[in-house]
Amino acid sequence: MKRKAKTMGAAQSSDSASGRNVSSAPSSNQSFFPVPLDILEEIFLNLPYEQVVCVCRLVCHQWKVVADTESLWKERCRREGYHLRDASRVPTDWRMFYFLCKKRRNLLKNPRGEEKMKGWQILENGGDRWKIEKPMVPHPNDKVKLNFVTSYGMCRKAQLIDLKKEGYNPAFMDEFQPDIKITDWYAPRWDCGSEYGIFVQLLNQKKEVVERYTPETVYFEQWNDQQWKQLVHVFRDYGPGVRYIRFIHGGKDTQFWAGWYGIRVTDSSVEICPAVDT
């Protein structure tokens, strides 16, 4: 019995000599990697944002707190050039603002006709059918060098955007319901009357309509100024369930002239974007 006690005492002395303290082991709610918060934030600022959210945030409580701080995401926005258009409209969630800026892009494929009709579903191809031409007058965006042209019969084309495939998962869309911004550019020929129409739907998983935008048809008289005009619409507070966006536009000439005297369309856009930036 005495030998056993001595052995235990020796073991305790050995632990003490080696500097180990069993009772000082971190508990499950303590950080295993104690790092000053300002240094930890700087480390996170130099990591890919997906890694910060999906890996670092899950390590321990301290790391989660830093990964969720407003200052971290506000600084990421500053370093990567994501600025507010209106300084008086401050985001309520800087992390969400960063994510939406980071992912922001035109979800429509081939919006200017540079790849012919690729990416578009032709719904109607009346008259002499859709055609692609150079703009008759310069577009406000000097990068636009081509446009789609309609004929004397109705011409309409469409795209269906799958939000999940584009990186916007269902939980994200349902919880945050980010703004969905629609833009389209259209112009008539100066010497022929024409009409322009657009039709946009937000659809659920079954491709049933959640919300729609259907403005009145725009008509142009003959002998107009043939200048480019932009349509802009923003879907807000549309509720949960949105999984697809269907974009349809087109038109025709109104004088039934053979050839391509109808409405011109180009540089169409569908974007998921921050509310303060629309």
Q: How would you portray this structure in words?
A:
24% of the residues lie in helices and 26% in strands. The protein is α+β, with helices and mostly antiparallel strands. The chain has 2 domains: 24-103, Monooxygenase; 121-277, Galactose-binding domain-like (Jelly Rolls, Sandwich), CATH 2.60.120. The strands form 2 sheets. Strands 1, 4, 6, 7, 8 and 10 form a 6-stranded antiparallel beta sheet that branches. β6 (194-203) and β7 form a beta hairpin. α5 (70-80) packs parallel to α6. The longest helix has 17 residues, at 2-18. The radius of gyration is 29 Å and the shape is elongated. The termini are far apart. The model is unreliable at 1-29 (pLDDT under 50). InterPro entries: F-box-assoc_dom (IPR007397), F-box-like_dom_sf (IPR036047), F-box_dom (IPR001810), F-box_only (IPR039752), Galactose-bd-like_sf (IPR008979). Residues 29-76 form the F-box domain. One of its GO terms (biological process) is glycoprotein catabolic process. Residues 97-274 form the FBA domain. Residues 1-29 are annotated as: Disordered.
Mean pLDDT: 88
- Quick one: overall form? elongated
Tell me the name of the CATH class of the largest domain.
Answer: Mainly Beta
CATH superfamily of the largest domain: Galactose-binding domain-like
User: At the third CATH level, what is the topology name of the largest domain?
Assistant: Jelly Rolls
Count of discrete alpha- or pi-helical segments spanning 4 or more residues = 7
Q: Any low-confidence stretches, pLDDT <50, length ≥5?
A: 1-29
SSE series:
HHHHHHEEEEHEEEEEEE
Number of domains: 2
